[in-house]
């Protein structure tokens, strides 16, 4: 089973937007055991879209078009697919109603243009999942098929996961499954991890039970992906479990999370298990730690709140610390303990970097102090973070959370 | 002059790497006045690479292949191009020497594999710039041309800027330039904007002085891109200025920013102009407003800090507001005025959503209250935001900042 991906939109060709949808779809197809040998980008031009889709269908069994399902005049994927199918467009009253309701629920009037989104090529069916106003389409062309999904990433992903991947696997008559698990690591380089794992990788090359792949993910650390290919779900899970535990023996506490877990979800779980609450004071990270913690459902049970004291007088009036408590080891300690007390939490954490100061002197601006305070006392760790201001901010968040994670393990 | 881009590498199809080279090349081609109507990704497979290049050459004047010029066995772009040209490969002694010297200057021994990089299709010339070990190639095919560049971004860019763009323009006999400007809007739907601008677009279609394109960017609003094609930079800027002012007359305050400006940079500029400082209390957005404001260099002059009072007792102890001040109009007002006072700012803003409450009752969880407090008094706006929790958070940030922006204009 071969499936191509066609990303649609003149803005993609002009480089106004980078096409990340195709990469994501390519990865999902590979994991689902579907070959994707070509991917294309084409602009909002009817002849060229039709040519592209025809060319793809001539050499593959399926095509996923991504984009061009919006309400405006340059959204013409529906028309292009209808032409390839040799049919006309039919307006679906049910979809039109649904779109109308979406606008009403937001207290807005639907522009007439949006009704174009209810036009569907004759013989096509719509995809059950519809997170936005654009319905996804399944369009049969003889034995082959065109799937049309919107270019909005979360809408596209919902339709891929909810319908298209399973439909492709069904068409492929594919019995086996491919399953992956991602171990997320922090604190070691990619080449360092590769060295630690080199023996294990040699063993796997011989045994063939699983494959490992590395993926450097910047401020999210380095991911190690385990992939197994087998007949059914239970044996796949057993194989992944076995490989995960082999890797844990080698990598130990470098592994901070698995699959959908994040550094912040792991930290919140650790606090919850110990019945502890958390307060945050952040200068250099300016709200990032709070943002990441509060994004997690149920974090409010553990996370009591945060203070971002940008002005010195705010540090003094709100936290009761000296207004010059900034960019030093002492500042991180004072703020961690002050925020713990003033927000009534069991644990206080704080971060401040040299770049918070007007002048950093000779020390690199990424020099960052991570403060951690509990009833038992207050500690500070100093780290040197690379990159520009924004990267230092991001690195300080994961460094501080990882510092707390390791303390919670102890 | 039409030029296609073919990104080469199985890892691109599998989504292990996102192809950003094509976007960059596409943008440079557009700015250089060269049409790029198709872009493709293909794996390290000789037949498919040859098929792709032939197909592209059949409909365009030039092709840029990107990747597959490395020293390993799966780097086969040289061979594929030679096949399309109907010639063999010739080893260039001069290039072989240069590669050898590169290794020596780094104190390393050259693996024999690297000599493959000195193999050039007969009749092709090499590109003068060669930042790495892979030479770039200019390969004539009749009147048409294939350019081969490495996939390493800085090597590719050096060759594009140093040779290829100028070579394409020379072939096209083209003297002019293309320039764009992006107007960012908030508060109206894409189809609504299209309706407002439909007359203007018709005029432009006739006059041909500029083109407009819409781009929905989710929580960043909807962008309207003006593009002009003319002989020189000053006349391009004059045309963009004229079109921007025509659009401002139609769209008015929907336009919040231009090009690199963001909602937060515009708000900070507005406060700075009026000599006002800002304090933020955010429950639903959990630190996002603070994160975005603090990301901007120099924001500390205006932005005094933020409080994220997740726990009710934190609202009481830190802000001095009732602990049940959450998820209501009154809560937004109380917090805005309290954070203004306790952080000693001229303006206090606050946001809280229904989803901050344990039970939202019959009202949709996206119902959000935006509070704004100054010495003159406190106001609240209620908005209904769509989507899941994370989207509501994101929308509440831009809604609150836009609310403040409009007040600053008044």
Structure description:
The structure is a homodimer of 410-residue chains. By secondary structure, chain A is of the alpha/beta class. Chain A folds into 3 domains: 3-172, Molybdenum Cofactor Biosythetic Enzyme, Chain A (3-Layer(aba) Sandwich), CATH 3.40.980.10; 177-258, 2-Layer Sandwich (Alpha-Beta Plaits); 263-409, Alpha-Beta Complex (Maf protein). The first copy, chain A, is 41% helix and 24% strand. Chain A is built from 13 helices and 17 strands. In chain A, the strands form 4 sheets. The first copy, chain A, has a 6-stranded mixed sheet with strand order 2-1-3-8-7-6, with helices on both faces. In chain A, strand 13 (278-282), helix 10 (288-294) and strand 14 (303-309) form a beta-alpha-beta unit. In chain A, helix 2 (21-31) packs parallel to helix 6, helix 3 crosses helix 4 (77-85) and helix 9 (263-273) packs parallel to helix 13 (389-409). The first copy, chain A, is globular and about 75 Å long. The model of chain A has no long low-confidence stretch (mean pLDDT 91). At the A-B interface, helix 1, helix 2, strand 2, helix 3 and helix 10 of A face helix 2, strand 2, helix 3, helix 7 and strand 10 of B.
How many domain regions of chain A?
3
Low-confidence stretches of chain A: none
What is the CA-atom radius of gyration of chain A, in angstroms?
26 Å
The beta-strand count of chain A equals 17
Helix-strand makeup class of chain A: alpha/beta
Would you tell me the overall average pLDDT of chain A?
91
What is the CATH architecture assignment of the largest domain in chain A? 3-Layer(aba) Sandwich
| Largest β-sheet summary of chain A | 6 strands, mixed
Instruction: Please write the CATH class name of the largest domain in chain A.
Output: Alpha Beta
Strand order of the largest sheet of chain A: 2-1-3-8-7-6
Shape of chain A: globular
CATH homologous superfamily classification of the largest domain in chain A: MoaB/Mog-like domain
CATH domain topology of the largest domain in chain A: Molybdenum Cofactor Biosythetic Enzyme, Chain A
Q: Greatest interface and its residue counts?
A: A-B, 80 and 78 residues
């Amino acid at each position: 089973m071969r499936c191509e991906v066609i990303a649609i939109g003149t803005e993609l060709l002009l480089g106004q937007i980078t096409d990340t949808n195709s990469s994501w779809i390519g990865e999902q197809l590979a994991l689902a055991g579907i070959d994707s040998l070509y991917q294309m980008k084409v602009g909002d031009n009817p002849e060229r879209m039709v040519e592209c889709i025809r060319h793809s269908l001539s050499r593959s069994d399926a095509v996923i078009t991504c984009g061009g399902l919006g309400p405006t005049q340059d959204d013409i994927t529906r028309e292009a697919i209808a032409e390839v199918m040799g049919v006309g467009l039919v307006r679906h009253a049910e979809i039109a109603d649904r779109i109308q309701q979406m606008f009403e629920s937001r207290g807005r009037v639907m522009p007439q243009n949006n009704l174009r989104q209810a036009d569907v090529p004759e013989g096509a069916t719509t995809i059950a999942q519809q997170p936005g106003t654009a319905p996804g389409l399944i369009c049969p062309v003889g034995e082959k098929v065109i799937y049309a999904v919107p270019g909005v990433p979360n809408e596209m992903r919902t339709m891929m996961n909810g319908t298209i991947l399973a439909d492709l696997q069904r068409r492929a008559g594919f019995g086996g499954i491919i399953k992956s698990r991602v171990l997320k690591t922090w604190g070691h380089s990619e080449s360092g991890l590769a060295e630690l794992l080199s023996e294990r990788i040699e063993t796997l090359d011989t045994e063939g039970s699983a494959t490992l792949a590395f993926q450097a993910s910047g401020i999210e650390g380095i991911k190690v992906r385990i992939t197994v290919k087998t007949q059914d779900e239970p044996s796949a899970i057993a194989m992944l479990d076995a490989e995960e535990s082999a890797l844990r023996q080698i990598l130990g506490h470098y592994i901070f999370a698995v699959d959908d877990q994040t550094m912040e979800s792991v930290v919140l779980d650790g606090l919850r298990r110990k019945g502890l609450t958390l307060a945050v004071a952040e200068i250099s990270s300016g709200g990032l730690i709070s943002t990441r913690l509060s994004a997690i459902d149920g974090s409010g049970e553990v996370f009591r709140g945060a203070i971002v004291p940008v002005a010195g007088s705010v540090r003094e009036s709100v936290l009761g610390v000296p207004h010059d408590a900034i960019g030093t080891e002492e500042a991180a300690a004072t703020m961690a303990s002050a925020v713990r007390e003033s927000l009534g939490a069991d644990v206080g954490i704080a971060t401040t970097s040299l770049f918070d100061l007007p002048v950093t002197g000779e020390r690199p601006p990424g020099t960052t102090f991570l403060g951690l305070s509990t009833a038992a006392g207050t500690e500070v760790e100093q780290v040197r973070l690379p990159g520009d201001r924004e990267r230092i901010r991001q690195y300080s968040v994961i460094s501080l959370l990882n510092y707390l994670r390791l303390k919670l393990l102890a």
